[in-house]
Design a protein that fits this description.
alpha/beta; eight-stranded mixed β-sheet; four-stranded antiparallel β-sheet; binds S-adenosylmethionine; Benzoate carboxyl methyltransferase-like; MeTrfase_7; MeTrfase_capping; nucleic acid binding; zinc ion binding
């Protein structure tokens, strides 16, 4: 299945359009705003170029597309106002897959300029230039070192392809708590490849010290089988209902898997650090309620209040949110005749789930990660390619202070190493604190170094695998103070 051909949010003229059913994504954008603000302020408060190039990747079509542009312009407008600086020109590059409803995006541009004019005055409107860039963000999209800032919200959990070798994920359409272990591994590996590739590509396009803020859906739990896959499992159940009714073939469900992946925080950090082109400034894990606002828990549990209607309405709303995103991909595999029935079943399953919610329990919460990154001055892998660079690789691995602030559930972060611990201790204290007071059950953790279970990569006693050469990615190993590399010939260097 070519993801580029089948992944497409429902267009504006569709009854269940993405534009009208993207409140969840809107809430996510709002929650991530403080990180966006911090990144842009940090980037432009020292030097403000006369022309700023910003790209939004996976922009889709609808109000959210323009919400991001507005936020970026607002923040820079505010910096200029405070520092009494001349407003720059804005080149805004909106990217999505070629099948995206770019017609609606482009026809909404004049209305956006009008709003800008009303809210910020004539001048800003004249300074803003919007362009569309069709293509996959898993390929090069922009000229080298041309961008100041890259943003992407709710696009990166889509993979470039369905992982291979997961034919045994029967009865599921995505990872499920019951999926066989090879399915989890294949999904994780595909994400690792795709996200590393994304970082590598963007590092070529972003200017040195340029910034990137990425938000995507995530997993709460590093242990795959302990995760609640919520709506995806209910969608699979809805497909199986249609199988039982003879409307869908069982083998069609068995052969379908979504090109989608929700990483956990630890995986994201690991991939960014291993890829090496960006430093992490901040990472936050936060939840957003995907069910519409209700009048409080007490009311939800008042059976005399006719509240079944609330659950039914919530079920429909959530079903529409998921339908606007997945309809195209489902139609391409199952045909379009089953779609209405599928989402009616799905809405009912959600409503039933909500009506069985215990007081205080939040069934519709979606976990998200927002990560703020800075492009390195110099690519660490480039440094590593020269003999002088060898020491730098070791330096990076030994002295990589854990510079970013990591917040879970929106709690304020502590400053780096303010507890007096070594940087690495600060990292685990800050990022891995959970129900077990910072101690994770590591029995099912997969180490990214060699894929063995039972420990984090940082605790791996084996030689650390790192990328060595920018051009060829030689295998190389860092062992404490020494770096060993091998390709055709063996190179041993002492730091
Ligand atoms: C759920 S929408 C999010 C849209 C918007 N950013 C928002 O927050 O409302 C995800 C978007 O990412 C796009 N997308 C997914 N994979 C992509 C890829 N490889 N390249 C470009 N866009 C992609 C999809 O087409 C879709 O429009």
């Amino acid at each position: 299945m070519s993801v580029e051909k089948v992944l497409c949010m429902n267009a504006a003229d569709h009854e269940i359009s993405y534009a009208n059913n993207s409140v969840l994504q809107k809430a996510v954008i709002s929650k991530a705003r403080p990180i966006l603000e911090e990144a842009i302020t940090d980037l432009f408060s020292k030097t403000l170029p006369t022309s700023i190039k910003v790209a939004d990747l996976g922009c889709s079509s609808g109000p959210n597309t323009f919400q991001i542009i507005s936020q970026v312009i607002d923040i820079i407008h505010e910096i200029c106002h405070q520092e009494q600086l001349k407003l720059p020109e804005f080149q805004v590059l909106l990217n999505d897959l070629p099948g995206n409803d770019f017609n609606t995006v482009f026809s909404s541009v004049p209305g956006f300029y009008e709003r800008l004019k009303k809210e910020k005055g004539e001048m800003l409107q004249d300074l803003c230039f919007i362009a569309g860039v069709p293509g996959s963000f898993y390929q090069r999209l922009f000229p080298s070192t041309s961008l100041h800032f890259v943003h992407s919200s709710y696009g990166l959990h889509w993979l470039s392809k369905v992982p291979q070798g997961i034919e045994n994920n029967k009865g599921n359409i995505y990872m499920a708590s019951s999926s066989p272990p090879n399915v989890f591994k294949a999904y994780a590996e595909q994400f690792q490849k795709d996200f590393s590739n994304f970082l590598r590509l963007r590092s070529k396009e972003i200017m040195p010290t340029g910034r990137m803020v990425l938000t995507f859906m995530a997993r709460n739990n590093p242990i795959f089988s302990n995760e609640d896959y919520g709506y995806w499992e209910l969608l699979a159940k809805s497909f199986l209902d249609l199988v039982a009714e003879g409307l869908v073939k069982e083998e069609d469900v068995n052969s379908f898997n979504l090109p989608f992946y929700t990483p956990c925080e630890e995986e994201v950090v690991e991939i960014v650090e291993r890829e090496g082109s960006f430093d992490i400034n901040e990472l936050q894990v936060f939840k957003v309620d995907s069910t519409p606002p209700r009048d409080g828990d007490d009311m939800m549990h008042d059976k005399d209040f006719g509240l079944n209607n609330i659950y039914i309405q919530s079920g429909k709303n959530v079903a529409n949110i998921l339908r606007a995103v997945t309809e195209h991909i489902f139609c391409s595999h199952f045909g379009d005749t089953i779609i209405d029935k599928l989402f009616i079943r799905f809405a009912t399953h959600i409503a039933n789930g909500l009506s069985n919610t215990k007081k205080g329990e939040r069934k519709g919460e979606r976990v998200n990660i927002v990560i703020s990154l800075t492009k390195n001055y110099e690519d660490k892998r480039m440094k590593a390619a020269s003999p002088v660079g060898v020491a730098n690789v070791i330096e990076v691995s030994l002295h990589k202070a854990f510079r970013y602030k990591c917040k879970k559930g929106g709690k304020p972060s502590r400053k780096d190493t303010e507890d007096g611990s070594t940087p690495n201790k600060a990292k685990s204290a800050r990022c891995h604190k959970g129900k077990n007071d910072g101690k994770k059950d590591k029995t099912k953790l997969t180490c990214y170094n060699y894929g063995k279970l039972g420990h984090f990569t940082g605790e791996c006693t084996k030689l650390k695998k790192v990328f060595f050469n920018f051009m060829f990615y030689f295998d190389c190993f860092v062992a404490r103070q020494n770096l060993y590399a091998h390709h055709f010939s063996m190179l041993v260097v002492d730091s």
